Amino acid sequence: MTALAAAAVWLQPVLLAALALRIAAGAPDAAWLPLGALVAPLVAMLAANRRVADLGPIARAALAVSVTVLLAADLVVAADLATSLDATPWLGVVAAGALALVVPLIPGARQASPVLLAIVATVLLLPLVSIGATTRTAPWTAWSRGALRGTLTFPETSAWVGKGERFARADRLLFTEGQRVTAVSGGVFRVVERDVTPPTVREWRLAPGEALTLRPGDELALEAGTRLRFEPGRRVPGAPASGIVWADAPGRSAAMLPSALGALVTLIGGALALVPAVRRGSAAITGPAVLLIATLAAVGWGVFAGSIAPDLPLGGSLVAPMLRLPIRALGARTGAPLTVLTAVALTVLLLTAAVALRGRLVAACGPAPVLWAAAVGAGGLITALRPEPWRLLTLALGVAAAGCAPALLASGRIAGQAGCAIGVLVFAILAALPLLAPALASWLEPLVRYPSLVAMPLGLMAARMLARISPEEDEEAPPVVR
Questions:
Q1: Share of the chain above pLDDT 70, in %
Q2: How many CB atoms lie within 10 A of CB 134?
Q3: Is residue 346 part of a domain?
Q4: Is 438 inside a domain boundary?
Q5: At the N or C end, where does the chain have fewer CB atoms within 10 A?
Q6: Which residues of 203-218 are buried (b: 16+ CB within 10 A; e: fewer)?
Q7: Residue 195's domain is classified under what CATH number?
């Protein structure tokens, strides 16, 4: 497979949008996660040739599940895109699902997809270049300026203080200062008052236009789809306390080492299973180059959004930092065309990702169109649960790592299949732990967040132990001449 086609498997819209959002929000893992996302597919591309058809039924089933969950995560991005355009989320899911279902089956789509991917990666950089040139601010300068902000507050130009914005998914906002919020859409609002012992929960039913006054320490629980308006000049609830905290989150300490290691294992293991090895040659550099450009674009979107408009991550929409930033930075006249260009680029990226994922599903389960239709349909049904997209992404990569890595790295076929079975079983138990044992899940939080941290090594250990106990003969070895 060509390097560009292999890169298309990895460059999912959910991955780039999630990286940008986490950087803009100042997440503790934002400092190193882009590096892991760049290195993981490069490791997979340089690994030895891996045939999915030789992995065994358990590994192929794990790969099919991974493809389905990745599709669901990408459809969540489409739902967020529809929400940002003031349309209903299901409309974005249906439209994107229809395109993902049909486009990969068009003759020539597989050949055109890598070229489109290279164009999209370049297009995603153009708005950043325009913002940097207009404001005369390089990304590293924007990072420094953002780190010098005393407080992260709502500016007058924010849509959150104008017509109000919608929360893409359920959230809990902790208010560090008194603030008055106005309900743009009516509903029941649950407030946890933590200034009393024990904390008191109060419910308020607000009609559109009615306001609710919150005190410092109050926590407001919001359902997905809720639309609110905030006061200008007030702190952004849920955002870092200051620019310094945004640039250097307190969570970046030795305590996050298990989670960091879990993310790294998930990324590399998932890439080994999903990203095929590439043909060597002068053209092989195109894949790593596109990966680098796309990752830099995601980092740039996150840095500029966090520095210029710290309120954009509020609401949890993956595409908000990418679609709202041009208008906030350059004004409606100049920013609107760049917003449209970005939305088109994300849509095309969804199509190139769908073509690449269909290729992996064909390699694992066969070319029957009904299999692809089932994967797209299941992905659409998953989005009805309003899942957290980063969680979907890590689950998709994790199940591929736990279910395929033992077969890829084991010396024997039977041992590899046994290792895959153990890896999938451990992964399923850890992933379901919040439902089975919530108290234990909170204690094992890094393992629950990244189940492949334990599942993949255990599967590898089981496969290697079994291979030593019962070594398999090489079926392709030539007969011994006596």
A1: 95
A2: 13
A3: yes
A4: yes
A5: C
A6: eeebeeeeebebeebb
A7: 2.60.120
Q: How far apart are CA 418 and CA 324, in angstroms?
A: 49
Q: Tell me which DSSP letter residue 235 carries.
A: B
**Contact status, residue 451 vs residue 402, Cβ threshold 8 Å:** yes
- In the block, tokens 């819209």 appear at 13
Q: How many residues comprise the chain? A: 482
- The neighbouring-strand residues paired with 171 are 222
Provide the edge-to-edge strand list for the sheet that holds 171-174: 171-174, 219-222, 187-193, 200-206
Q: Are 417 and 276 members of one domain? A: yes
Range of 174's domain?
165-238
Task: Annotate 257-277 with DSSP letters as a single string.
Answer: HHHHHHHHHHHHHHHHHHSPP
Tokens of 51: 């045939």
CA pair distance 311, 437, nearest whole angstrom: 35
Bridge partner list, 86: none
Report which secondary-structure segment, H or E, holds 373: helix 369-383
List pLDDT tens digits, range 333-372.
999 999 999 999 999 999 999 999 999 999 888 899 999 9
pTM of the model: 0.91
Of 179, 204, 238, which closes a domain? 238
Overall domain count for the chain: 2
- CA-to-CA distance for 146 and 402, rounded, in angstroms? 39
Taking the CA atoms of residue 335, residue 339, residue 342 and residue 348 in that order, the dihedral angle to the nearest 10 degrees is: -150
**Does residue 410 belong to any structural domain of this protein?**
yes
The closest of 288, 34, 262 to 139, measured between CA atoms, is: 34
Distance, in Å, from the CA atom of 180 to the CA atom of 175, rounded to the nearest integer, reads: 11
Residues 28 and 100 in one domain: yes
Checking if the pLDDT of 477 tops 70, the result is no
User: What letters, b where the CB count within 10 A reaches 16 and e where it falls short, cover 367-394?
Assistant: eeeebbeebbebbbebbeeebebbebbb
Q: Are residues 303 and 447 in the same domain?
A: yes
Same domain? For 119 and 19 the reply is: yes
On whether both 230 and 263 belong to a single domain, the answer is no
Q: Which residue has the tokens 């006061």?
A: 231
240-298 residue pLDDT tens: 989 999 988 887 888 888 889 999 999 999 999 999 877 766 557 888 999 999 999 99
189 in the same domain as 121: no
Task: Give Cα 206 to chain centroid, integer Å.
Answer: 34
Asked if 418 and 466 touch (Cβ cutoff 8 Å), the reply is yes
Among 238, 258, 277, the domain boundary falls at: 238
